């Protein structure tokens, strides 16, 4: 059930029937029990996985979150209110939680997608605002040192994938908990999941450069396999994004298009449930290129369109 990473760190792959369909939770051993990093979605399957862990006799001291996307925070409220385990998140994460408690987050998302030529948000997409409706037991800020188990880690703010994303670094052991900032097999989606425009790709590029300054023997991501050469993986992901950026720029050289037009050209026509991630990746690339002065936007009949400058 648990995979041993080091003497004091174990990994639990929590599975569930939506989204990425699994998340890596890490259990960090301490004198009073284990610190859990991220929880999985709010689902019966994820709850059952954690119930089996608890039934095995493992004591959980606290939950700490890398960021507040659904698959990482989903069971935090359950841990706190049903199991009696305190939950800690960043101050920025708490601000994101408060946004998601509002029912208008879905409306903002719907408006953003339609503004950029998309079909909007599916009506049957679940309202998950309830998972954010609790008060954290503690907050941390960037560069703060926090205990995960018995070891002291630095909280490194790495916005991009999420505005509140944090990695945790132990200098002595050269270990980094990297959440969704980098994954071994795929590139994390850089999206605008609160329905608010921001230059998320610039944030991501800056965060990629930042973590290269933290020498790590092993990086533990939120999904998939461990990363043993962090700098090489940073460079690979950056090159992949640069290639996609060029593809987006090429798509608008001769005519203006919406983000959805470009998304369909690059990724094909996708089911309405599946289109959001590639759509968001396309939109954030356009916003990045706009900030560089390489594309310009124009609103035509209520649709935002882009063309190379």
Written description of the protein model:
By secondary structure, the chain is α/β, with parallel strands linked by helices. The chain has one domain (about 5-250): Metallo-beta-lactamase, Chain A (4-Layer Sandwich). Helices cover about 35% and strands about 25% of the residues. The protein has a seven-stranded mixed beta sheet. A five-stranded mixed beta sheet has the order 8-9-10-11-12, with no helix packed on it. Strand 8 (about 145-150) and strand 9 form a beta hairpin. It is globular, with a radius of gyration of 20 Å. This is MBL fold metallo-hydrolase. It comes from Halobacillus amylolyticus.
Please render the helix and strand layout as text.
Elements lengths: L2 E4 L2 E7 L6 E9 L2 E5 L6 H12 L4 E5 L5 H4 L2 H8 L3 E4 H11 L2 H12 L22 E3 L4 E4 L2 E7 L8 E5 L4 E5 L20 H12 L6 E4 L8 H22 L7 H9 L8 H16 L3 E6 L2 E6 L1
Parallel strand pairs: 4-5, 5-6, 6-7, 11-12
Antiparallel strand pairs: 1-2, 2-3, 3-4, 8-9, 9-10, 10-11, 13-14
Helix pairs in contact: 7-9, 8-9
